[in-house]
Amino acid sequence: MTLLACPSCDALHDVPDLRVGQRAYCLRCDRMLVSGRQTSLDRTLAMAFAVAILILFALFFPFLSIEELGFGNTTTLLGVAAAFLTGWLIPLTAAVTASIIAIPLMRVGFLVYALFPLWRGGAAPRHAARVFRWSEALRPWSMAEIFVLGSAVALVKVADLATIGFGPAFWAFCAAVVIIAFERQITDSASIWSILDDEK
Ligand SMILES: [Zn+2]
């Protein structure tokens, strides 16, 4: 038995040792408390790889296409960010690029470093617990969804002036945003911490 507080509503639960495939949910608010160790590693790593692939795809494929009076142009995600690299907008552009690209990719790197060896049945790498804590600490700063919302609003405003098309990178980025949002709900930090604790 382990005493666990629900991360959403703080209700305390006595959680028995779970068998493979079992999950424990909060009695009050239904949030998942623990999902078993292998499942939690499977899920976290699957999401990390999916996010990495989608963001890398979004970097190199067309993000937007704009057409006006027969002239067309396409741009990538980095091209969108680079368009604002002038004067006082440079720090803002750097912050936006970090929060939509660098921080999500850093979190993926941390998770894969800390958890992939465990998932393969090996020992935890050096400083695995610290690296996992970094990835948790970066979570609020990974703000890809804000960017998607902002782009959508901006594009609706210029839609009258030119024909705007979303490229494959835009949809890949949207998929990454959905996965990142989902990840917050189902990452089972309690199980991962208990694995890392045992490895010390
Ligand atoms: Zn709860």
Automatic annotation (TrEMBL):
Pfam hit, one: PqiA
Coiled coil: none
Keyword annotations: Membrane, Transmembrane, Transmembrane helix
Tree of life domain: Bacteria
Membrane-crossing residue ranges in chain numbering: 45-64, 71-90, 96-116, 137-156, 162-182
Listed name of the protein: Paraquat-inducible protein A
Annotated organism of origin: Pontivivens marinum
